[in-house]
Amino acid sequence: MKLFLFLLYALGFSYALFGIIDSLQKKQRAVESLFWAAATALINTTLLATALAMLGIYHFWLLLAIQYGEVLVIALVAARKKALYAPKAFFLRLKSYHFRVLPAIILVVAFALYALFPSNFMMSGRDQGIYIIHGIHISESGKYAYDSDEFLNENFEGHWRVIQLGYPAFYSDYSKAAYVPEYTEYLFGEAFSDPEYGDITPQFMPAFPALLAVGYDSGGLSVLFRVNCVVAIFSLLALYYFARRFFGKKTACIALLFLALCPAQIWTARITLTEILAQ
After folding, report:
1. Fewest C-beta atoms under 10 Å: which of 40, 79, 136, 230?
2. Does the pLDDT of residue 75 top 90, yes or no?
3. How many CB atoms lie within 10 A of CB 114?
4. What is the CA radius of gyration of the chain?
């Protein structure tokens, strides 16, 4: 149910925004306009989930409610600008665009390689495992930050010889402030100027874990492990349209083929690392 409602948002957002982008492109690239509309829906989800997590109020239903509100606003703006297509006109507009078989085949093969063979088992202490832990934490707690460990706050001074603060990729704020004093001089560093023993901060930035949280909420671990698959397909299309606009169709197809079947691309699309999102 959650996955269906999220996909419905993505479709509604793309449909509402399509006419505006199509008008900006002078109605010359219908399918490309639809891609940019869908990519904007993905970017919007990432930024919105990140903002809610940083504010400590992330919840899937709150995220979805805001997104459906955005779809309504965009549809009203598009209608006011006379850029909102009727459903029949929308499909006729896409149908009028010459469909290219080779890029579509490459994308289907790439999607099969990425989605059908995800890496489901990852070491918790490695980066990909940390992202999963952090994404599920955001989903379950609604916030990016972690609560301070009260046991450490109360007992560390009596057991400091046998307790190591922090965890792999979850760093102790106390250790940072004590052993790296200049840390507090960085942007937002004043937040770590007087930490307690049990305070920890994740190593990684919140955008990708927040997107994983949305995937986990939408369909559990099976969807979470395939978030990068979806992002990878968007990155392939972005490369294709960029190359086609500046270097021509043949060059774009070659670039798409090489990136889609690149071993590094296939590997990172199957695991929870940020390299794909950074593309």
Report:
1. 79
2. yes
3. 25
4. 22
